[in-house]
Design goal:
Blueprint lengths: L2 H10 L8 E7 L5 H7 L5 E4 L3 H5 L6 H7 L1 H21 L6 E5 L2 H14 L5 H17 L6 E6 L2 H11 L9 H17 L9 E5 L8 H4 L3 H7 L1
Parallel strand pairs: 1-3, 1-4, 2-3, 4-5
This protein binds 2'-deoxycytidine-5'-triphosphate (DCP).
Amino acid sequence: RSTAHWLNKRVMAGAVSVKPFTVFVEGNIGSGKTTFLNHFARPDVDLLSEPVDMWRNVEGHNLLGLMYENPSRWGLTFQTYVQLTMLDLHTRTSTHPVKMMERSIYSARYCFVENLAREELMPAADYVVLDEWFKWITSHFHIGGDLIVYLRTCPEVVFERMKARAREEESCVPLEYLRKLHKLHEDWLLNQTKFCCPAPVMVLDANRDLSEMEEEFRKCEPIFSAAL
Ligand code: DCP
């Protein structure tokens, strides 16, 4: 159905402002977020990929690489830039009925920044400054989503995928790091022990071979169709 049809439907329903149905696609490194987004490449869906290329080249500086080389020195620099680029994606307006984002400002804060702090790889003062920014941003901008799709994996599976895709900056990432990130995703999205979740969570089993994931991805179709 056309965008005009959707706009009409929202206006008729008395929507005060036209806001797309917003989905955050979350999951460990190598869980298949990019593959998921590619599956939903269609005219009604606004796909916003994570700007990894920008993180690898900020005026010639590879912040992602620096962070992996020396997290204590570069963790704050890198995560500050991640937070800025995610805010940019969150606040982009869209004329599409569905807006789908790879990750969110929330996983940056609740998984990656949290891990750096817990592992004492980030000085307490850096953590506090990032957290103050995060709290200010999330209280001054409306960036909550409508649905989180959690691509749930075993750390061992994504470790093999990460090695196979061989992104240069990740060459030294150990399995243990993926285990910690996995636990933080589980605590945030399923157990909800420390941080609250900004949207309902739909869990997909993303352990299968990425080429076989289509069937799993199709479970989201009815939800997206309802939003159109
Ligand atoms: N990263 C990070 N801190 C963040 C977000 C990402 O350190 N706040 C790092 C982890 C990875 C790289 O950036 O080294 C990209 O990670 P993602 O899991 O976001 O993206 P992938 O490309 O691994 O996703 P997938 O393979 O699921 O498509």
